[in-house]
Amino acid sequence: MLPFFFLSKQLPDALIPTIPGPEMPLACLTDFRALAQERLPKSTWDFIEGGADDSFTRDDNIAAFKRIRLRPRYLKNVVNVDTRTTIQGEEITAPICISPTGFHCLVWPDGEMSTARAAQAAGVCYITSTFATCALEDIAATAPRGLRWFQLYVHPDRQLSKQLVQRVESLGFKALVITVDVPKLGNRRHDIRNQLDLKLNLLLKDFYWLKERTSMPYFQMSPIDSSICWNDLSWLQSITRLPIILKGILTKEDAELAVKHNIHGIIVSNHGGRQLDDVLASIDALAEVVAAVKGKMEVYLDGGIRTGNDVLKALALGAKCVFLGRPILWGLAYKGEDGVKELLNIIKNEFHTSMALTGCQSVAEISQDMIQFSRL
Question: What residue stretches are annotated with the FMN hydroxy acid dehydrogenase domain (predicted)?
């Protein structure tokens, strides 16, 4: 199956990324950010990097990690440091996975297929977005051994959502991630100023496929159901055998409701600061959610992860693993599959170093007594 659109024909020139040439070695994730910004059109870059309203939460996601200090323990044998862990019973090489982000073809021609191959090579989980710009069959086929979850925005037409859930289950996706923090799109000022309207340039392949292959523009489909509530989760559970993860939980009250409704996991997230501004940074909300679930489900985190130290801090506060959003798009814009692999390798190596320098042989040894919050 071919991707549902061709960049060169259906996207304006202003949205088509330039293809990079050889560069000097990159040393950290922010190096990829600088290169991606150079190579992407301004409107595309603003779409990826923009936050809601004043972008306070977007920036605080990163700043909040710097308010946490490490408490290393020395004279411990760290000859053999093992970064492996499991999520939902599946082993990954490190607790560093890929968040769902849409429209990967905006930054690299074969989009999500490159991302999926990089995740498979790295041995980490990739959450594919409802707004993927490659066919799910192609994503599954290009990385058949990769661990994939699927992120779902529930459609007002529940039959469409049911068909899509059954489709991803048949393709070997291992979990269903329901994004809960988008009953309405956040106020993203950069996109308003740029008059960026992806609705006029992109067709959603997955819902198009379900509508008997008739052209179905995104803006005609109103794909996000604003009415979905806690009681609807039982319907989702009735149509799939996949574990259900809720993405976007920030409070103990909602975490307790997730336990009550037999959810399998939570991703503590504020949507990269793209939805409701002035909410807690993800890392600042993590401990509250972890305490509320009382070990009854796995808790993950996305938002603001930029270094191996950040990963260790999140795990010390109770996250089972972290997910990367924008940095993956930076790597993809830099060099496609190879760029994402390089970026993942860098942060995995940083995390290995962080573990060794704090005295941890295994992920299980990372604990809350290894961190303290700064008074600054």
Answer: 21-376
Residue 194 pLDDT: 78
Q: Report residue 106 as tokens.
A: 């905006």
Averages of pLDDT over each 10 residues, the chain, 376 residues: 38 50 81 96 92 96 98 97 98 98 92 97 97 93 98 92 95 98 90 65 44 35 80 97 98 98 98 97 98 98 98 98 98 98 98 98 98 85
DSSP H helices in 123-246: 136-142, 158-170, 189-194, 205-210, 218-221, 233-239
110 CA to centre of own chain? 18
Structure tokens, 182 = 């988008």
Cβ density class 323-341: b for 16+ within 10 Å, e for less: bbbbbbbbbbbbbbbebbb
- pLDDT the model gives residue 110: 94
Q: Is residue 271 annotated as part of the catalytic site, yes or no? A: yes
How far apart are alpha carbons 191 and 350 in whole angstroms? 34
In 3D space, the residue among 324, 297, 321, 154 whose CA is nearest the CA of residue 239 turns out to be 154
Per-position b or e across 109-138, b if 16+ CB within 10 A of its CB: bbbbbbbbbbbbbbbbbbbbbbbbbbbbeb
Task: List, in order, residues 6 or more apart from 119 with CB less than 8 Å away.
Answer: 97, 98, 125, 126, 143, 146, 147, 148, 340, 344
Catalytic residue among 104, 155, 190, 271: 271
Six-digit token pair at 168? 């991803």
pLDDT at position 322 is 98
| DSSP character at residue 275 | S
DSSP code of residue 342:
H
Q: Which residue, among 255, 186, 188, has the nearest Cα to 224 in the 3D structure?
A: 186
Predicted confidence at residue 224, as pLDDT, reads 86
CA triple 160-165-168, angle to 5 deg: 125
What's the pLDDT at 190?
A: 85
CA distances from 96 to 57, 301, 339 (A): 22, 10, 16
C-alpha dihedral, 132 to 136 to 138 to 142, nearest 10°: 90
